[in-house]
Design brief:
Shape: elongated
Order of helices and strands: HHHHHH
Helix content: over 70%
Number of domains: 2
Distance between the termini: 122 Å
Radius of gyration: 37 Å
Strand content: under 5%
Length: about 220
């Protein structure tokens, strides 16, 4: 049994994201928390305050990236959903649900423990925060793996490109047929024009020969 679905309505109403930008920005959502984790591990015992502030700022950047990934995923998902089979649609729904939980609970919990570690400055809170951050990274890596399977196994957004490519091919074929028909009609028209020009002088000569000149009327003086 999967996770219950949660809708982030205030994010789902945003539709200004361009299509197919999701694969480009999702890599930042996977790599940035790994960078934060490495920084936190190296700063676990030195406890440099400036490093804590830097990582806290990176968390805010991470939040904006997550929101962008979520919105772009909704945009691409709506575009691809109707083109998928039932298994693909279920996989896409599960992918969306996990993404919602990562934003709503995963990031929130990690951010709270980050704030707690900053306030208390205790090593065990820092270790607990790092452990929870590692779990969030594991979730984002699974989400990235599932997204790759959606493309490779179910062809999310690949079908759309394939359909457009097929339509373009059909239109090209129709254009070629129409162009061939037009050229054939043009040749026939040119041949007909040549025939008319060849026979026209003789016809006109015959007409002139059969028409008798009319005498001019005499004017009474």
């Amino acid at each position: 049994m999967g996770l219950p679905e949660i809708n982030l309505t205030f994010l789902e109403n945003i539709t200004s994201m361009p299509f197919h930008i999701h694969p480009a920005i999702v890599h930042f959502a996977v790599s940035l928390p790994i960078i934060i984790l490495l920084i936190e591990i190296f700063n676990l015992f030195p406890k440099r305050r400036i490093v804590d502030i830097v990582t806290f700022g990176l968390f805010w950047i991470f939040l904006f990236i997550l929101i962008g990934v979520y919105i772009s995923g909704l945009t691409d998902g709506k575009e691809a959903f109707e083109l998928l089979d039932s298994k693909g649609q279920e996989a896409l729904k599960s992918h969306k649900i996990l993404g919602t939980y990562i934003i709503l609970f995963g990031f929130t919990i990690v951010a709270l423990f980050k704030i707690l570690s900053l306030i208390t400055n205790k090593v065990y809170y820092k270790i607990l925060y790092i452990a929870i951050l590692a779990l969030l990274i594991a979730a984002t890596l699974k989400q990235g793996k599932d997204g790759g399977e959606l493309v490779n196994t179910y062809g999310v957004n690949v079908q759309k490109a394939k359909i457009l490519e097929d339509k373009l091919f059909d239109l090209q074929m129709k254009y070629d047929d129409l162009n061939s028909s037009y050229n054939a009609l043009k040749v026939k028209e040119n041949n007909a024009t040549v025939d008319i020009n060849t026979t026209a002088p003789k016809s006109l000569k015959d007409i002139n020969a059969t028409v008798a000149p009319m005498p001019l009327a005499k004017k009474d003086i």
